[in-house]
Automatic annotation (TrEMBL):
Name of this protein: Isoprenylcysteine carboxylmethyltransferase family protein
InterPro entries documented for this protein: ICMT_MeTrfase
Subcellular location: Membrane
Stretches that traverse the bilayer: 45-62, 69-87, 120-146
Predominant location category: membrane
Keywords tagged on the record: Membrane, Transmembrane, Transmembrane helix
One Pfam family matching this protein: ICMT
Source organism superkingdom: Bacteria
UniProt topology in membrane: Multi-pass membrane protein
Length: 168
């Protein structure tokens, strides 16, 4: 390993930038949903999600900035971003990083027609693709396992929330 890998730095900046934009969108949508009478469920474990993603990004930055890129995995990450856009577009103002329910039927368009919790599947794939793009196999394994354990609780809470919504 030599010096800085420009490709790795660009990928890391892209990932961090994407996450920051998502947090801004999520905050705006959360405020709007709560103003419409929404209520949050699963707040007790939200800090785990924040901690996991912060640790993942921190680990990527500390371990990945000198790594040469594996372009096939970069391609996987970019394809996943098309999926993220589809998810965000499908949920519109109801997309947030928290579980906020409003008295409206669940969204049934976009990827939600085909699979439950597509955003969680996409995030799980990202937690693999980005470290793999940097050759950090151990990061992909460790954070995938941590995320899977956390998602058990998260999906249980979200399913409870979805069951409380009116039918379409």
């Amino acid at each position: 390993m030599g010096g800085v890998s420009i490709g790795a730095v660009v990928l890391l900046v892209l990932v961090i930038g994407q996450r920051l934009v998502e947090l801004r969108i999520a905050k705006r949508n959360t405020v709007a949903l709560l103003a419409r009478g929404g209520r949050e469920l699963g707040a007790d474990h939200y800090w785990l999600i924040v901690a996991l993603h912060t640790a993942w990004i921190g680990t990527l930055v500390l371990s990945g900035w000198q790594q040469p890129l594996l372009w096939g995995w970069v391609g996987v990450y970019l394809v996943l971003q098309a999926g993220r856009f589809w998810i965000l577009r499908s949920l519109g103002g109801r997309w947030t990083t928290r579980i906020i329910i409003v008295d409206e039927p669940a969204i049934q368009r976009g990827p939600y027609r085909f699979v439950r919790h597509p955003n969680y599947w996409l995030v799980a794939a990202e937690l693999i693709a980005v470290p793999m793009a940097l050759g950090l196999y151990w990061v992909a394994i460790v954070f995938t396992l941590l995320n899977a354990a956390m998602m058990v609780k998260r999906i249980r809470a979200e399913n409870t929330a979805l069951a409380s919504l009116p039918e379409a």
